[in-house]
Amino acid sequence: MNADLHCHSVVSDGTLTPEELAARAKANGVELWALTDHDEVGGQHRARAAAQAHGLPYLTGTEISVTFAQQTVHIVGLGFDADNTALIQGLRRTRGGRGERAQEMADGLAKVGIANAYEGALHYVGNPELISRTHFARFLVETGVCNDTNEVFRKYLTEGKPGYVPHSWAKLKDAVNWITDAGGMAIIAHPARYGFTPNEEYALFTEFIAHGGRGVEVITGSHSSPEALRYADTALEFGLAASRGSDFHSPDESRIDLGTLPLLPDKLTPVWQLLADRIQ
Ligand code: AMP
Ligand code: MN
Ligand code: MN
Ligand code: MN
Description:
The chain has helices at 18-27, 44-53, 85-95, 98-111, 117-122, 133-142, 149-157, 172-181, 198-210, 225-238, 271-274, and strands spanning 3-4, 32-33, 61-68, 71-78, 185-188, 215-220, 241-245. The protein is of the alpha/beta class. The strands form two sheets. A five-stranded mixed β-sheet has the order 3-4-5-6-7. The protein has a two-stranded parallel sheet with strand order 1-2.
């Protein structure tokens, strides 16, 4: 099935509205869709309504920022009740430090001669509670400091670089519990993107499962084909269901468009099989 269960709208760091994404997913042949904005479910009602208007089956979604072993890990939640109070409050707390962090990022950039980056980034922000590194990256591309957002991350926004500010996100246990207690499924996003040692990665998967996590992204816009094969095996090894999502952010920035990924390998259990009764 052409399921695309990971993408971002202007409610977090994407450039399209939930309605524009629903239309694009439909046009690209997506058969099951989820909008997964970072640390936020504010776009869920709009996304579901737009999907339904296109006759496109929908799962609620979010992507929660977590700190595990001093690194940032993303946990996707699918099929939860988007009105669940504990989930909404947990996400609000997770978003809480972003404003201050952004000011510190701008201070770091000012020290290397890039002025007014906070104001510049704000210009791209659709949701004032969700200022992210992506918005700074867009500002640095617009002002000609870098040629593309990838270059911005490499030179300015990753560990050790002038605009990087370490941050403490949600705890793994809390993120998994918010999703699961709201009736949804927790999924480890793009596992190949983390800089873990084999031991740390093993700890991530075992703790995630112990807390009630049940899925892992195998086919994602952030995996190469060898990485997808590797995490297909990891899914089988840990008895996790497999997810598929482009992680689409913007027509101008994203390598992989909505609905254009390879299919999940046959040997895996798709997350949507376990979420059949949550599809709207
Ligand atoms: P934040 O939550 O503010 O730390 O921002 C994280 C976001 O930055 C991710 O969700 C991606 O959208 C984006 N990002 C991270 N690394 C890169 C990269 N190397 N190139 C482009 N975008 C990136
Ligand atoms: Mn993002
Ligand atoms: Mn992510
Ligand atoms: Mn994402």
